[in-house]
Amino acid sequence: MPVSGRIVARSLVATTAVALIAGGAVPAAQANASADRPSDRSARAALAPRTTFTMAADGSTGAKVGGERIPNIDSVKSTIRAYYNAKDGIADKTTSPYISEMAKITAKSLAGLPTVDPAAKKAIVLDADDTTLWTYDMEDAAMKFNFDPALQDVWVQEKRFPATPSMVAYVNAVQAKGYAVFGLTGRNSAQEDATLANLSTLGYTGFTNANFFTKWVAPADQPSYVTCAAAKCTTVEYKANTRKNIEQDLGYDIALNVGDQWSDLQGGYADATLKLPNPTYYLPSPNIAGAPASDAAMTPRTRFSMRPSGSSGRTQGGEGIPNIDSVKSTIRTYYDATDGIADKTSSPYISHMDQLTTGWARQVKTSCATYTRPKHHGKHRKAAIVLDADDTTLWTYDMEDAAMHFSFDPTLQNEWVQQRRFVATPLMKRVVRAAKRGGCQIVGLTGRNDSQRKATIDNLNAQYGAGTFKPRLYFTKWTGTGKSQQPSYITCKTTPCTTAAYKSQTRKHVQRDLGLKILANFGDQFSDLKGGQAERAYKLPNPTYYLP
């Protein structure tokens, strides 16, 4: 397993997939093959998510790349949970890739630290959260990866954090080697006593109020040795100035500075730094004099390999997992979202959709007109395009971000559905209009359920024009209660049906039983498109959730 701890000295995939993502489509032979002929590797690749990504930590990548090139946030969560071997948001405390990696990191660090005479006043400085105290269960199970300072304070005051794996033994070992230890955390002074008590309970020794530094609460309490350029100190300024105080005023030489954030380590005043892995949040800090954020030795990784299932978390080191806060920032840049609300007039996403739908509309109009045009025998042939709902025809971004904070809530989703709160997915009206002008009928096929059917159709027709989406050609998922039962044309091998099976078999019903040739199938998830039963498959970008 790659080890992500670092000691720093001071000072779609195949050619057809590209067409699908960039404005073309996957031909029927390939779309069908991905489900019906699993041995056809090129077809599978055409309908599979991307697995390699380049992403800057600050989110700026969202302004430069299409949505398929942004790590999908649900896949990121799955990857993180695999890394921590977490179930229901609770990390495994016995065995996991993270625990194994921490054991390797601390063992390597200890092997490189020589024994010293305590009189030499050599010191080790350690951050708290995810350096000595482990916050994973709070971050995932309690906060759903959305930081809540009030809830964090409850956990702090109740001393609920376990020790970061391997770190109690590590800290005690460095003390045995003759080093003094100092704590330096972004937790505030009102949390200091509880934090020290939490550390002591876990078996850490040597941390006291005298050598454990917390952030001041009132401006008047800011220590004189912290001289920030701005009214509010950045993490780097606060921590670098505190380390300067330890060295220049207290007379220690900081041999090693240990933290889980790069902002814990920037700013100097340490002979070396040790970065611990932590993909669960990102605390950035701007450049300060002598500590540029662009320093290659002090910057997060930007290239990642990640499978959509999350299984990469079992093989990648923590630094090789896209940081969830950076992913959120990248997504928000892509949608030009402020306070969780996407810009409705201009954004990289809207520009991307403009480019895609321009080509799609032209292709759909031509294929519909060609197929439905009367031949020499004078008969009209009937054709259709099939469209998913969420993020294909109706845009859910504001709900996903502002309302749900990227943590799906079916009750809240149903409220939005019943209240018909969704606007049309940007530029998809031009595709629907083009299909109708070409003579195609419009078929809706969604994972929303029968109890949401009427509200969804009403929402769509309010956005796309009265009568555009007809009830007889709109398919929703059965609930299994009352009259809402699995239809006879759905013959799933497993219960419940997968999204791909439900949608593929419904498209087969549309073609075989309703007599409509499906010329194009549109969806924002690959599971909307797998299973064939359409001449071409069109994939819309959507990094905000993943439905396998």
Find the count of extended strands (DSSP E, 2+ residues).
Answer: 16
Main sheet?
A: 6 strands, mixed
Taking all residues together, what is the mean pLDDT?
A: 89
* Anisotropy-based shape: elongated
Over all CA atoms, what is the radius of gyration?
Answer: 28 Å
Q: How are strands sequenced across the largest beta sheet?
A: 1-8-7-4-5-6
Number of H/I helices: 19
Q: Given the helix and strand composition, which structural class is it?
A: alpha/beta
Low-confidence stretches: 6-44
The end-to-end distance, rounded to whole angstroms, is 27 Å
Q: Helix share of residues?
A: 25-40%
Binned strand content = 5-15%
Organism: Nocardioides endophyticus
InterPro entries: Acid_phosphat_B-like, HAD-like_sf, HAD_sf
Protein name: Acid phosphatase
Region (Disordered): 303-323
Description:
With 548 residues, the protein is α/β, with parallel strands linked by helices. Helix content is 36%, strand content 14%. A six-stranded mixed β-sheet has the order 1-8-7-4-5-6. Helix 19 (526-529) links the parallel strand 15 and strand 16. The longest helix has 25 residues, at 348-372. It is elongated. It starts with 5 loop residues before the first strand and ends in a 9-residue tail after the last strand. Mean pLDDT is 89; it is low at 6-44.
